[in-house]
Structure formats: structure tokens, C-alpha cells
Amino acid sequence: MPDVIDQTQPLSWKIRVRRSLSKLATNLAFFSIITLILIAVLWQNIIYTIPPGSLGVVWLRFLGGTVTDKFRSEGITAIFPWDKLYIYDGRPQRVDLVVPALTVQGLTVKISVTVTVVVNPESIGVLHKSIGPNYLNLIIEPTVASAIRTMVAGYKIDDIYDMAHHEIEAQLMRQINDRIISKQLNFDANEELVQLTQVSLRVVELPPEIVKAIEEKLSAEQAALRYQYILRREELETQRKEIEALGIKRFQEIVTPTISESYLRWRGIDATLQLALSPNSKVVVIGGSQGGLPLIFDSRGEGLTPQQTAPAQIIPPQAAQHQPSPTPVMPLPATANPKTP
Prior knowledge:
single chain, 341 residues, alpha+beta, three-stranded antiparallel beta sheet, 18% strand, elongated
């Protein structure tokens, strides 16, 4: 029969330690199970994944609200389930706007621009606390529209049309930056909340009647330039003819005293011989007067090479005086043969 432990006797320290460890293990197991259940249920409110290029802002429910001096980088992060995490895109954001504006003359001009901005990571908490995730619609778009209207209001429509795109972009860049900085000062931000990186001008749309008038003006200017070109060309052609006439006159003045009758006769005979020896030549040269060129008549129907061509009959000028004046003969086609009457 087992011995009965006397409950009145004090327990040894070993038994007391053993019992305490058993209770502690039971409590730890219970709390671990409860913790795992809570984590499984509240996992989506505890563990967050911040995408690449993004920034996280933590809002503490019991410890002062938005954390403005720190931000969470990309990757996995954890918060208490009663707190909240807001994720911002830290990469450049693009805003496309079409803004109608009035010129000095009261005409409406539509300016299409693309603005690129990026949030400042060091002041992302202040941006979230003072403006919120919708900062593009609340700050950037009204600021850009105001800057465009202010710039256009200071110019005439002709000046806007004549301005280069980079000049308009530079002016808009300055005005938008000034307005953004002034608005950031209202939120007591030590650093820039949003940085303007680029302003791109896409289209400057003028009123239809202005566009038509400009096109007509440009067409008239081109027509005037064309007429000026024609007049200039005619003036140059006149100068060319005058220079050519002066050259011919000087040539005649230089050559005429040196030309003799015998030289001219020799040149005529030489030209006549060359014509007589040329292939396919059917030429009648009449020189019946005294001192004239010899009479040459080639009536062959087929063209001959210079080797096959016989020298034409040359009648001296003295014999030509006793011959009747020759009758001009028209050249015959190469395929026709003269018929005997």
C-alpha cells in the first residue's frame, strides 16, 4: 500500500520549482497559441510590403499620429495592428494638363503641358500630414494652371506664337517653382515637399480665325519672296547679257584688225573640206561670185565613213565664173533615190 503524503508537511523546493515550471509552460503555450491566432487573423494589418521605388509613412494611433521625421523604405515592414501605414510612390510623377488662358487682347489660347514632379523622402511625413496622398490634384494641378494663366496674360497672341518652346518652358518652370515654394512655406516645411523636375510644352492651340490669318500672312510673305527672287534673277540675267555683249565687242575690236581676206578664204575652204569629208552630210554650198567659196554638192543616199567618203569635186573660183549659177538642191532622205525625168 503506497505511502500517503502528509499534506501538512511543507513541500520540498524541488517539487515547488517543478510545479512552477509546469504552470509557466502551460501559460506560455496558451499565450503562444493566442498570439499565433491573432497574428494569423491580423496579418494583413501587421506585415506590409512596400513596393520598389515607394515610401511608407506610419500613423500611430496612441503615440502622436503621423511620424514626420522618419519614413519606411521599400521592402517588408511591420507595425502594430492598431496603427496604419500609407504608401507613396517615390518615383517621378507625370501630370498632363490642358489649360485655357486669355491673352492681353482677350483671345483664348489653349496650352497643353506635361509636368514631372517627385516627392522629397525627407519631408514625406509632412506632405502626408498637411496635404495627403492626393497632392497632385490639390497642389500641382492648380499651381500649374495658375502659372500658365499668369504667363499668357502678359503677352499678345503674336508674341506667344513667335516664342520658342524652350522659352515658354523656362518661364513656366520659374513661375511654378515659385508658387510651389510659397505654398510649402504655409505648411511650415523645412524642406521641399515636392520637387519640380521638368516642364514640357506639348501644344499651343490658337483660335481658328487666328490660325487662318497667320497662314494667309505666311502665304503672302512667301509669294513676296518669290517675286523678289524672280526680280533678282532677271537682274542677274541682264548683267550676264551685258557682260557677254561687252566680251563680244572686245573680241571683235581685238580680232577685226588682224583678219585678212586670204585668211577668211582659207578658213572657208577648210570648213568646206571638213563638211565634205563628214559622214551623212548632204550639203550644197554655193559660192558663184568671184572670190567666193567653192561649190560642193554631196548627193549620196547613204552615210559613209570618212575613209569611204570620196573627196567632193572642188571647182576653182576662176572656173566658177564661166559656169551658170547653180540651182539650190534640197537634201534628199537617206532612203530615197533620185528619179530621172
